[in-house]
Amino acid sequence: MNAKKPPVPVPLLMLIGIVAISFSSIFIKWSSAPASVQGMYRLLFTSLLMLPFARPYSGAAFALRRKDWVLLGFSGMMLALHFLLWMGSLKFTSVASSTMIMALEPVFIMIGCYVLYKEKSTLSAITGLGIAIFGTVFIGWGDIGLSPDNVKGDLLSIGGTAAVAVHMMVGQRLVSRMPSYLYSLIVFISASIVFAVYNVLAGIPFFDYPPKEWGIFVLLAVVPTVFGHILFNWLMQYVSATTVSMNILGEPVGASILAFLLLGEKLNGLQWTGGLLVMAGLAVYLYAGRKKTLGIEDSLPSAS
Questions:
Q1: Considering the domain boundaries, does residue 59 fall inside one?
Q2: 241 CB contacts (<8 Å, ≥6 apart)?
Q3: Over 75-120, what HEC string results?
Q4: pTM
Q5: In a domain, 4, yes or no
Q6: Along the chain (304 residues), what's the average pLDDT of each consecutive run of 10 residues?
Q7: How many CA atoms lie within 13 A of 238 on its CB side?
Q8: How far apart are CA 11 and CA 222, in angstroms?
Q9: Into how many domains does the chain fold?
Q10: In a domain? residue 165
Q11: Range of the domain at 122
């Protein structure tokens, strides 16, 4: 972390980032295009924005081994699966429920790294994990009282969270051997290709969408990605990873407020209880001191 100060105050930049990533769910809700098309163009347009700045990393790209390219492709496939499931979840459940479940990403990573790498966490972190999972049960319980579709959306969001956790764990290994910018660019392009193949096989059209949809595709690439996750990555040179990682608690709150104002979505008592438990559990977990497993957030954009 660099001791110098950014040209704009850190709290203001963090607020901008939280608002930006909170709009991701809203844009997805506004779109009537299939989730696979939204995901494909979001990643494709983000890649196009990144390409002009990729030249300094060309040498590192040529130095990659065959095994690295295989892992990059697998990471891209997991990222595409994440977007497919999470974006799809928003067609069935509320923004609040979906984003609160998505906030469990660090918990999934902690579990995965324990299973795969035997990395252990502190008792405080495990306690936070338990509280967050208990809160997720409350969210699902509240959604059961609404409709079966809401529960389906919750399950899709859980699947999307698991997929992005795998994506991040693979990335943890890769960014130790290559620049994070290059990793992100290649994975975004790989995921775009996965989506393209999926859309071809599913018979989903690529171009038959009104101007409104194309505008949303661009907004998804620019607002939550550039002014959200890439901004957070840039902030890592000025503040600690733990400080930036706490923004994961801001997205469900911001998205829920925006969903209430722009979509008229409301939560019942059980959903509010579950959401508060998830946020409290994550706060305990993150403040307990995250293991190096989650250090990948220092260099990789989040997926939501």
A1: yes
A2: 290, 294, 295, 297, 298
A3: HHHHHHHHHHHHHHHCCCCCHHHHHHHHCCHHHHHHHHHHHHHCCC
A4: 0.80
A5: no
A6: 67 84 92 94 93 90 90 93 92 83 76 71 71 68 63 88 85 80 90 96 93 95 85 67 61 81 78 74 66 44 51
A7: 15
A8: 21
A9: 1
A10: yes
A11: 10-298
